[in-house]
C-alpha cells in the first residue's frame, strides 16, 4: 500500500503519523504554500495524518512555473495521489484550494470521505475578477487587503518580488476557472465561510450544495476572507468533530 512521503514533489508532512487511522489533505489558497497548514498538522497529529499540497512556483519549488489552470493543477495532484489506498482521505481547501480540492476529488481514483470547502464560493458561482492582470503593486495591494500573507513577506522586497510570479499564476488559474456544467462529487461537502468575507456571500457558499450528490452544510464564522487565521480554534473544532466520528465510519 502506497503512502505519501516527506520528500515527495507534491506533498509535505510536517508531523508524520504512521499510526493515524485517517488522512487529511490540505490545499493552500492563491499565493499560499504547504507550510500554511503547519498549525493544522500540529493540532491534529498523531491522530490524523495531515498532508499539505505544495503547488509549483513557491518555496522549495520556486524554480518551477506556477500552475497554468485549476484543471491542470488538479489533474497533476490527482495523479500524484492515485495510488493512495492505505486509509480514508478527507480534503480541506481554502479559497483557491477549495476548488482545487473539488477538482482533485472529481479526478481521484477514490472518493474522499468529505470535502471542507473554506472561504470560496461554489464552483458554479463566478465573478469578474482580474487581479492577475494588475501590475505588481496592484497584486500586492490585493494581498494586503485579504490579510492572508505573512507580514514578514511585505518587509522583504526581494522575497516579495521573487514570489510574485507564482502568486500571479495562482490568481490567473483561479480567476479563469470555470467548472464544467453539472460538475459534482459523491461525497459530503462542509462549507466554511466568514460572515464578512468580501469574496464569498452566504448565497454563494450555500450553492456548494449543487455540486454534491451527498449532503452539504454551511458553517459561518465571524471574520473576513481569512477567518480561519482569525478563529483557528473554531475551525479546528469542526475538523476534530469530523475525525472524532472516524471510529463509527470504520465500524
Automatic annotation (TrEMBL):
<comment type="similarity">
    <text>Belongs to the thioesterase family.</text>
</comment>
<dbReference type="Pfam" id="PF00975">
    <property type="entry name" value="Thioesterase"/>
</dbReference>
<keyword id="KW-0378">Hydrolase</keyword>
<dbReference type="InterPro" id="IPR029058">
    <property type="entry name" value="AB_hydrolase_fold"/>
</dbReference>
<feature type="domain" description="Thioesterase TesA-like">
    <location>
        <begin position="25"/>
        <end position="243"/>
    </location>
</feature>
<protein>
    <submittedName>
        <fullName>Thioesterase</fullName>
    </submittedName>
</protein>
<dbReference type="InterPro" id="IPR012223">
    <property type="entry name" value="TEII"/>
</dbReference>
<dbReference type="InterPro" id="IPR020802">
    <property type="entry name" value="TesA-like"/>
</dbReference>
<dbReference type="InterPro" id="IPR001031">
    <property type="entry name" value="Thioesterase"/>
</dbReference>
Amino acid at each position: 500500500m502506497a503512502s505519501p512521503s516527506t520528500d515527495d514533489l507534491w506533498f509535505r508532512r510536517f508531523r508524520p503519523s504512521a499510526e493515524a487511522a485517517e488522512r487529511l489533505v490540505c490545499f493552500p489558497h492563491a499565493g499560499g504554500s504547504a507550510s500554511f497548514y503547519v498549525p493544522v498538522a500540529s493540532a491534529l497529529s498523531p491522530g490524523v495524518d495531515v498532508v499539505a499540497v505544495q503547488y509549483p512556483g513557491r518555496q522549495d519549488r520556486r524554480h518551477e512555473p506556477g500552475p497554468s489552470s485549476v484543471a491542470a493543477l488538479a489533474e497533476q495532484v490527482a495523479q500524484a495521489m492515485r495510488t493512495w489506498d492505505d486509509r480514508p482521505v478527507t480534503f480541506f481547501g481554502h479559497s483557491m484550494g477549495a476548488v482545487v480540492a473539488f477538482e482533485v476529488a472529481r479526478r481521484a481514483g477514490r472518493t474522499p470521505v468529505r470535502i471542507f470547502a473554506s472561504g470560496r464560493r461554489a464552483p458554479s458561482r463566478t465573478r469578474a475578477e482580474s487581479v492577475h492582470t494588475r501590475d505588481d503593486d496592484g497584486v500586492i495591494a490585493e494581498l494586503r487587503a485579504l490579510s492572508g500573507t505573512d507580514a514578514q513577506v511585505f518587509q522583504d522586497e526581494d522575497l516579495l518580488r521573487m514570489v510574485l510570479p507564482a502568486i500571479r499564476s495562482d490568481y490567473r488559474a483561479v480567476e479563469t476557472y470555470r467548472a464544467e456544467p453539472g460538475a459534482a462529487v459523491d461525497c459530503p461537502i462542509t462549507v466554511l465561510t466568514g460572515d464578512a468575507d468580501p469574496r464569498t456571500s452566504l448565497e454563494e457558499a450555500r450553492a456548494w450544495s449543487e455540486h454534491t450528490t451527498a449532503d452539504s452544510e454551511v458553517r459561518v464564522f465571524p471574520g473576513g476572507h481569512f477567518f480561519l487565521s482569525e478563529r483557528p480554534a473554531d475551525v479546528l473544532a469542526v475538523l476534530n468533530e469530523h475525525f472524532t466520528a472516524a471510529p463509527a465510519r470504520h465500524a
